C-alpha cells in the first residue's frame, strides 16, 4: 500500500542519516525525486523507500531502464541555485520557463553557498561578501575559495545595506560606532551570511571587538527576521538590506551599496549562457523593477571572468 507522507529535506537527512547537502546532491543527480511547496522542498515517503530499495546490495539498477522503441530522453538538466534573495526565486522561475534546465532552490547565506559550490553541491550561487582590505565585493572571497575552478562572476542587482533601527531612531544611532553604546542591544545574522561579514568587517575598521556588543551572539537567519526583531522591540539594531523596510516598520541607516553577484562555474557553458540571457532579458528585469531597493545599472555585467 502506498504511503502519501512527505518529508522536508532536514527530515530526509535524518531518515537516511546523511547531511542535508548530501540529500540536495541526490536530488540534483536525479536519484531522489523532490518537489517544491512554496519555498520548501519535499520528498515523498514512497520515493525514499524506492531509493533505499534501489541501492541495496544486489538490487537491480533501474535508474536508467532501457528505452522503448521510438522513446526519446527528456532533454532537461536539473540545477541547484543557492541564496536567499527573492530575486533568485524569480531567476529560478525564469530559467525553468525559458531554458532546458529545471531548478531547485537552496536558501543558504553567501559563504555557505560558495562552499557548497566548491564541494560540487550547487550550480549557481549568489554572494554579497564585503572585503575590508580591498573595499571590493565578492571577487577576493570567490578567488580564494574557487582557487582551481574557473568561474564567471556576474552582477544580478545592487542593494543598499545598512542598520535597522526602531521607528524614530530613539537611541540616535547614526553609524557603526554607535553600536557600542552601553544601552544598545543588537541582533545578528548567522556565520557565513553576507550581512554578518559586512558587520564584522565594519567593526574591525572601527576597532570594536564584536564580543563587546550586547546581543552579538543573538542569531537570526534572514533580513526579514532581523528587521522584525528590531520593529518588535526584541533588539534596538540589526544589519540588513533596505528593501525589507517596505515590509517591516523600521527606519534604516544606509552604510554601503553592495554588489549582489551570481557565481557560475565555467565548465557548464550552456548554463552560463542561460543565466546571462535570463538576467539580461527585458521580462526578468521588468519584474525586478517592481521591487523596492534594487539598482539594475550593473545587472548582467561580467564582474570577473577567471
UniProtKB/TrEMBL annotation:
Domain PBP residue range list: 96-277
Pfam families from the UniProt entry: HTH_17, PBP_like
Ranges where the Helix-turn-helix domain occurs: 7-55
Alphabetized Gene3D superfamilies for the sequence: Periplasmic binding protein-like II
GO molecular function term, any single one: DNA binding
Chain spans, region Disordered: 46-76
Coiled-coil stretches noted in the UniProt entry, renumbered to this chain: none
Protein name from the UniProt record: Molybdopterin biosynthesis protein
Lineage start: Bacteria, Bacillati, Bacillota, Bacilli, Bacillales
Amino acid at each position: 500500500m502506498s504511503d502519501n507522507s512527505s518529508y522536508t529535506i532536514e527530515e530526509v537527512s535524518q531518515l537516511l542519516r546523511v547531511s542535508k547537502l548530501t540529500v540536495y546532491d541526490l536530488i540534483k543527480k536525479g536519484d531522489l525525486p523532490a518537489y517544491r511547496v512554496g519555498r520548501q522542498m519535499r520528498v515523498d515517503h514512497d520515493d525514499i523507500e524506492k531509493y533505499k530499495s534501489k541501492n541495496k546490495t544486489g538490487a537491480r539498477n533501474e535508474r536508467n531502464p532501457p528505452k522503448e522503441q521510438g522513446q526519446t530522453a527528456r532533454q532537461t538538466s536539473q540545477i541547484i541555485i543557492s541564496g536567499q534573495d527573492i530575486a533568485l526565486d524569480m531567476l529560478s522561475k525564469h530559467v525553468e520557463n525559458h531554458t532546458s534546465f529545471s531548478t531547485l532552490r537552496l536558501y543558504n547565506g553567501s559563504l555557505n553557498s560558495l562552499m557548497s559550490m566548491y564541494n560540487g553541491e550547487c550550480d549557481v550561487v549568489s554572494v554579497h561578501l564585503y572585503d575590508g582590505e580591498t573595499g571590493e565585493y565578492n571577487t577576493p572571497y570567490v578567488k580564494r575559495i574557487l582557487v582551481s575552478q574557473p568561474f564567471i562572476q556576474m552582477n544580478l542587482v545592487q542593494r543598499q545595506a545598512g542598520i535597522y533601527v526602531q521607528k524614530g531612531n530613539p537611541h540616535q544611532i547614526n553609524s557603526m560606532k554607535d553600536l557600542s553604546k552601553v544601552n544598545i542591544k543588537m541582533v545578528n545574522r548567522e556565520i557565513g551570511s553576507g550581512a554578518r561579514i559586512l558587520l564584522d568587517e565594519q567593526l574591525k575598521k572601527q576597532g570594536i571587538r564584536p564580543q563587546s556588543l550586547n546581543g552579538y551572539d543573538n542569531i537570526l537567519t534572514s533580513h526579514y527576521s532581523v528587521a522584525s526583531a528590531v520593529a518588535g522591540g526584541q533588539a534596538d539594531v540589526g544589519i540588513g538590506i533596505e528593501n525589507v523596510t517596505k515590509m517591516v516598520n523600521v527606519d534604516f541607516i544606509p552604510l554601503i551599496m553592495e554588489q549582489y553577484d551570481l557565481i557560475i562555474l565555467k565548465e557548464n557553458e550552456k548554463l552560463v549562457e542561460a543565466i546571462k540571457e535570463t538576467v539580461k532579458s527585458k521580462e526578468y528585469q521588468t519584474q525586478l523593477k517592481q521591487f523596492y531597493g534594487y539598482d539594475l545599472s550593473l545587472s548582467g555585467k561580467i564582474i570577473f571572468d577567471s
